[in-house]
Design a protein that fits this description.
The complex is a heterodimer of chains A (about 375) and B (about 160).
Chain A lengths: L1 H20 L1 H36 L5 E7 L2 E3 L1 E2 L1 H7 L4 E14 L4 E7 L9 E4 L1 H7 L6 E5 L5 E9 L5 H4 L2 E4 L1 H8 L5 E2 L1 E6 L5 H11 L3 E5 H39 L3 H12 L4 H33 L6 H5 L16 H28 L2 H6 L1
Parallel strand pairs in A: 5-9, 6-8
Antiparallel strand pairs in A: 1-2, 1-11, 1-12, 3-10, 4-5, 4-11, 6-9, 7-8
Helix pairs in contact in A: 1-10, 2-8, 2-10, 2-12, 8-12, 10-12
Chain B lengths: L1 H25 L23 E5 L4 E4 L2 H9 L1 H4 L8 E7 L6 E2 L5 E4 L4 E2 L2 E2 L2 E3 L2 H10 L4 E4 L5 H7 L1
Antiparallel strand pairs in B: 1-2, 1-3, 3-4, 5-8, 5-9, 6-7
The chains are: A alpha+beta (about 375), B alpha+beta (about 160).
Chain lengths: ~375, ~160
């Protein structure tokens, strides 16, 4: 037992020394390898974390959202729809919602305006997201002027700033009373942007949705499960786009690695011949090459994954953020909570480390089984 | 679109969480509670769970009205040492509201296209109107009352 371990340790020792001897070549290989793993692992971490974040947020989403369509486009819903929907069996609550976007000419940003009379009780006061507070340089107690559609400024006193923990969705959010909402957008009374429907028994959701569609043919009920599925698809799609962009890098790496791993230089062939002639057996030589592959690929893999972890969860993935988070002037500065999907890491491992290591062994086996004399002479 | 949905969700999240937390506290079923009729874990199907309270204060959970009624009609077989007379309170979940109601006053719809954890179910309702509306929506066959339920009838559901 002890001798086996010693044999491995000795060969590993030799491997490291031989890798160091060809420092430039091996370092460049390691760097490219590292870069590829880093990009792929970053992407895996980022998409997994975003998906989880979305799932957590949507957990509290309404069971169903009812919109109204006019000529195929979303329009305002009369609040009297809400009463009719509330009387459908199985519906426990219907809540008309008021929300929209406000373009701020000062910094060219779009704010999300939501009316909620439960959290903002006083007129002309507002709760705002931290990114707005930062870009407009305002704090609690200050006034935030918004220009209404009648071109009259609406002075909102900031009652609180939404916690930064919910930045992904709250960074550009302004919560005001429904009265102010109607003033700001010249919004007709008795109308809502959409209706949030709560259904106690999830089994009844599809029946209720079809009843709503029957009752109001111009309405479009959207189930929570559909929203969830759309999110997953959107993140998968964006992740997929990034993979396609990265794939050229990946392919060039594969070509490079294949070339490096399979083709033995004359020098290496000679080295194997010398090793064999001074008494190394074929398994020893293979073990040496195996360790060489393991040292390079495992170092690249572990370092790459660790760097990717830091890149995504400590620096908030500056490399992909633009491509994956959407487009907006005010970028939420948020920190993703770390999630590591072991399955995806394992896939990454088996797609990179294992093929590389095996690819290095086969040509060496061919060289090692050859006669040392020929190997040295060639 | 994505962010707006998230934003709105956030605003309502607090109130919704509070409400659902409150209702969960009432209907807490121990994670290891097993239905004595079919042996399945009850906590996995909170929308279907049914409960019996005995004279001595202990409770027994079932994973659907059907299993509760089976046990009620054949108590000594499924719960040796207990008798039907020991059951002081019965509770099943009303389909639309998921509130706990007494099955002895409920209206049951059988033969519908809504299945419980144990397949075909007796779906309980508080009022006859609800039962009729459900029967229409979900292709139910019959509305029955508690005293019409027999073991034989339950067997035809399986």
């Amino acid at each position: 037992m002890k001798t086996t371990l010693e044999r491995h340790l000795n060969i590993l020792d030799f491997t490291l020394a031989s890798l160091l001897r060809r420092k430039g070549k091996n370092l460049s290989l390691l760097t490219i390898y590292l870069l590829v793993i880093f990009m792929l692992a970053s992407l895996v971490f980022f998409v997994t974390a975003l998906k989880r974040e979305a799932a957590i947020i949507l957990e509290d989403a309404p069971d169903m959202v009812v919109q109204r369509l006019v000529a195929g486009r979303q329009d305002l819903v009369p609040t009297k729809y809400a009463e009719a929907i509330a009387s459908i069996r199985g519906v426990s609550k219907v809540r008309p919602r008021l929300w929209g976007y406000y373009y701020d000419g000062l910094n060219g940003a779009n704010y999300t305006i939501v009316a909620d009379d439960d959290s903002v009780t006083e007129p002309e006061s507002a709760m705002i997201g931290s990114a707005i507070a930062r870009s407009r340089k305002v704090t609690v107690g200050d006034l935030l002027p918004l220009i209404s559609y009648e071109k009259v400024p609406l002075m909102l006193q900031i009652s609180s700033i939404l916690p930064a923990g919910s930045d992904l969705m709250a960074a550009d959010l302004i919560v005001i009373s429904s009265e102010d909402f109607q003033t700001l957008f010249n919004f007709p009374a008795g109308q809502a942007t959409d209706l949030a429907v709560t259904v106690r028994n999830p089994k009844e959701l599809t029946t209720i949705a079809s009843k709503i569609a029957q009752l109001f043919p111009d309405s479009r009920p959207i189930l929570k499960s559909e929203i969830l599925r759309t999110y997953q698809a959107v993140f998968d799609w964006r992740g997929g786009m990034t993979v396609i962009l990265l794939s050229s890098a990946l392919i060039s790496f594969i070509i490079f690695a294949w070339d490096k791993a399979t083709g033995l230089s004359a020098e290496e062939r000679k080295e194997i011949g010398i090793l064999k002639s001074i008494g190394w057996s074929t398994p020893d030589v293979l073990l040496l090459k195996f360790w060489e592959g393991v040292v390079i690929s495992l170092t690249a893999f572990l370092l790459g994954v660790v760097l990717a972890y830091g890149h995504v969860f400590f620096l908030s993935a500056p490399l992909f953020a633009q491509a994956l988070k959407g487009w907006s002037v005010i970028y939420p500065s948020f920190r993703l909570s770390p999630v590591v999907d072991g399955y995806q890491l394992a896939v990454l491992f088996f797609l990179t480390v294992v093929p590389y290591t095996t690819a290095t062994i086969i040509p060496c086996w061919r060289a090692a089984t050859a006669d040392p004399d020929t190997a040295m002479r060639s | 679109m994505i962010r707006i949905v998230m934003a709105i969700v956030l605003v309502y999240a607090v109130s919704v969480t509070n409400a659902s937390a409150a209702s969960k506290a009432v209907e807490a079923i121990p994670a290891n509670a097993k239905c004595p009729v079919c042996g399945m874990f009850v906590a996995k199907y909170p929308d279907w769970s049914a409960t019996v309270r005995f004279k001595n204060g202990t409770t027994q959970h079932f994973d659907g009205p059907k299993d509760l009624l089976t046990c009620y009609l054949d108590t000594t077989h499924y719960l040796p040492g207990k008798r039907q007379a020991d059951m002081v309170a019965l509770g099943v979940k009303e389909y639309y509201s998921l509130e706990i109601i007494d099955p002895r006053a409920a209206y049951f719809v059988i033969g519908s296209d809504v299945y419980g954890p144990m397949g075909s179910e007796l779906i309980p309702f508080k009022t006859e109107k609800d039962a009729q509306a459900f029967k229409l929506d979900h292709k139910g066959k019959r509305i029955i009352r508690f005293n019409e339920i027999t073991l034989q009838l339950i067997r035809t559901l399986n």
